[in-house]
Design goal:
The structure holds two protein chains of two kinds. The radius of gyration of chain A is 49 Å and the shape is rod-shaped. In chain A, a hairpin with a 2-residue loop joins strand 4 and strand 5. The longest helix of chain A is centred in the N-terminal third of the chain and has 54 residues. In chain A, strands 1-2-5-4-3 form a five-stranded antiparallel β-sheet. A five-stranded mixed β-sheet of chain A has the order 7-9-10-12-11. In chain A, strands 6-8 form a two-stranded antiparallel ribbon. Chain A has eight helices and twelve strands. Chain B is an alpha/beta fold. Chain B folds into two domains: 119 residues, Rossmann fold (3-Layer(aba) Sandwich); 97 residues, Arc Repressor Mutant, subunit A (Orthogonal Bundle). In chain B, a hairpin with a 2-residue loop joins strand 10 and strand 11. The chains are: A alpha+beta, B alpha/beta. Chains A and B meet through helix 3, helix 4, helix 6 and helix 7 of A and helix 1 and helix 7 of B.
């Protein structure tokens, strides 16, 4: 349920409840006030009658007006003074009756006790009450309506900064450098929210950038020492006095430096792809690129006696040529390196997807981590970054990437649907 | 032939210098932007090896100065940042080649030799190794008047040895030279052996001497008589 709906529901229900209770109370208060007024008029009549008796020693004339009647009846004993509500048949309308407020009291005139009843019609009061109630009801409805509309408009507007912040957070991407934009708001809470969110994302981004810059700098800083080691090795092997034993050790050093160099370059490449430093795109004809890569890898394929079959249909993608080269190179080297001697590779290319299948020993690790950095089998000579680079490239271009294993065949599938030209 | 090595890492600069001096190059060394500027103003060099990230300035600025002075020096950029932009801007500014760290001295030697050959012996595209004649323009190898039928890799190998003649070239350097980085370093060692075996056979069949020597299986050396 949306905040507005929830708030509105509670708000309207509470308003109705308050207004209904208020109206009931209001009705009774009005009624009491009006009756009290009537009673006062009756008391004034009583006072007039009493003063008349005192002056004249006899009862005034009884009166029988439409809205006020005064009547006397002899009584044996005085009655208690009291106000009562009575109804009398309506002289003008049959089957209807009219309500009266009546004051009953006793007087003594000429040695005789009389019960005096002064009554006044309540019709006017009732009419007034009715009008007040109708007006009140109208006001209530109007109030509710305006309340609802105002809430609707106001709340929508008031909460807009909140919803915008929410949307911004949903779309927040650590690796992109767009800053969050906020609509200025005068509401303290939202301003505080915006500030907090801004601070938080700013801090996260700063940490992330620092981490990335660190990785980048570390990799770059390593290049020069590696170059020094490499060059010193290159010089050492020129020494004719070195024996086989020494050269063997130098070879091991060479290999280690070579691995370190590859590792370093792969990490740098990953960072660069992550940072979208390969923006330039061109039309890449995939079938031709696959043929080219296979030709480049011919020696490796031949040495392992691997049979390569291809089924290449036209597929053109607009992407960075260097990245497409890396993508295919890594996939194919992977398929060769982790293959059996006399194994097989099958490459299937169609307009919207690429399948690279190869025979090979089952994975010694969890298949779901195959595209993670440094996931590799213990005996692998690789850096463990080849497929991580493949994934990073696929992520950049929003390609789908999956791995499956069936009957000794490892299959990597890339779906291009987002980029088909 | 006179070279200038502009590199702020003394150890690396020394390595380059002593490797290239074996090839009868005379090497000057500069460790800073200022030092390099002075040397460039005072001397003419056949080739300048230029590290673009110097402590006191950018090597690319040095390149601009060079080009605005219409100096004919060849320039090979050496960079720790293997970045495409640096490479492109360097080549645009008139550098002849670009090599990213770390590199093998034999690769550097080959690049320097190629730059100097292009700049100095204009019109002459021939490299003579005793009775072996390499025609770089035609990408062909002739021994005793007979053209050899070499594969691309065999030709690349021979040229690489020619540029580094008399020095041991490691298998790692050869693998990187022939296959580049992305096609799996150590996996290629066995093929080097095959390619070299074939190259030697073809050269000897054509009547050339057996000049390519193996150095305990860790590298090879082209030794001319």
């Amino acid at each position: 349920m949306k905040l507005f709906t929830h708030y509105s529901r509670v708000n309207i229900l509470a308003s109705i409840l308050a207004l209904v209770l208020g109206s009931i109370g209001y009705y009774f208060i009005i009624r009491t006030v009006l009756i009290h007024q009537l009673d006062e008029t009756l008391s004034v009549e009583e006072a007039e009658i009493l003063s008349h008796i005192q002056l004249k020693g006899q009862l005034p004339e009884p009166a029988n007006y439409n809205d006020q009647q005064i009547s006397y009846s002899p009584a044996r004993a005085p009655v208690d003074r009291q106000f009562v509500n009575i109804t009398r048949p309506d002289p003008f309308h049959h089957n209807e009756s009219r309500s009266f407020r009546q004051l009953v009291f006793s007087v003594r005139a000429g040695g005789q006790i009389y019960t005096v009843s002064v009554s006044k019609s309540e019709e006017e009061t009732k009419e007034l009450q009715k009008i007040i109630m109708v007006v009140t009801a109208g006001m209530i409805l109007l109030l509710l309506g305006i309340l609802y509309l105002a809430n609707r408009l106001l709340i929508r507007r008031l909460w807009r900064p909140f919803y915008q912040t929410l949307e911004e957070l949903k779309g927040f991407n650590l690796s992109s450098h767009d800053t969050l934009s906020h609509t200025p708001t005068s509401i303290k809470e939202f301003r505080s929210l915006q500030q907090t969110v801004e601070q938080m994302t700013g801090q996260i981004r700063k940490d992330y950038d620092m981490l990335k810059a660190f990785a980048d700098n570390a990799s770059h800083e390593m290049q020069t020492p590696l170059a020094i080691i490499n060059s010193k090795l290159d010089l050492m092997i020129q020494d004719q006095g070195l024996g086989e034993q020494h050269l063997r050790q130098l070879q091991a050093m060479y290999d280690a430096v070579s691995r370190l160099r590859q590792l370093n370059q792969s990490l740098l490449l990953l960072t660069k792809i992550e940072n979208h430093q390969f923006e330039q795109t061109g039309l890449v004809v995939f079938a031709a690129l696959i043929e080219k890569k296979l030709a480049q890898l011919e020696d490796l394929i031949k040495a392992k006696h691997i049979t390569v079959t291809t089924d290449l249909q036209p597929c053109q993608l607009r992407m960075n040529p260097y990245l497409s080269d890396i993508l295919l190179g890594n996939l194919l080297v992977n398929a060769i390196r982790h293959n059996y001697d006399k194994g097989a590779i099958h490459i299937h290319l169609q307009q919207d997807m690429l399948l690279v299948r190869n025979t090979g020993v089952p994975l010694s690790f969890d298949p779901s981590t195959i595209f993670d950095r440094f996931t590799k089998s213990a005996q692998s000579e690789g850096t463990g970054l080849g497929l991580a680079i493949v994934r990073q490239i696929c992520d950049n271009y929003k390609f789908t990437l999956s791995y499956s294993n069936k009957e000794g065949w490892h299959t990597i599938r890339i779906g291009f649907s987002s980029l088909v030209v | 032939m006179k070279l200038l090595i502009v590199e702020d890492e003394k150890a690396l600069s020394d390595s380059i210098s002593s490797y290239l001096e074996q090839e009868s190059f005379v090497c000057d060394q500069a460790e800073s932007y200022k030092g390099a500027l002075e040397k460039i103003e005072q001397h003419d060099y056949d080739c300048i090896l230029l590290d673009i990230s110097l402590q006191d300035g950018n090597g690319l600025e040095l390149l601009k100065v060079l080009k605005s002075n219409h100096k004919g020096d060849g320039v090979l950029i050496i960079s720790a940042r293997n970045s495409l932009e640096d490479k492109v801007s360097g080549l645009k500014l008139g550098a002849d080649d670009y090599l990213s760290k770390p590199f093998h001295l034999s690769e550097l030697g080959a690049r320097v030799a190629a730059i100097i050959r292009r700049r100095h012996s204009a019109g002459s595209n021939l490299i003579r190794l005793a009775e072996i004649l390499i025609d770089i323009q035609a990408r062909s190898v002739v021994v005793n008047g007979r053209t050899l039928d070499l594969t691309r890799k065999e030709y690349q190998l021979l040229l690489y040895f020619a540029y580094n003649k008399g020095r041991v070239v490691s298998k790692n350097a050869i693998a990187e030279h022939l296959w580049g980085d992305d096609t799996g370093g150590a996996d290629n060692y066995d093929f080097i052996y095959t390619h070299i075996k074939n190259l030697r056979r073809k050269l000897m069949e054509a009547g050339a001497g057996d000049y390519i020597q193996s150095v305990y299986g860790m590298g090879y050396k082209l030794m001319l008589p």
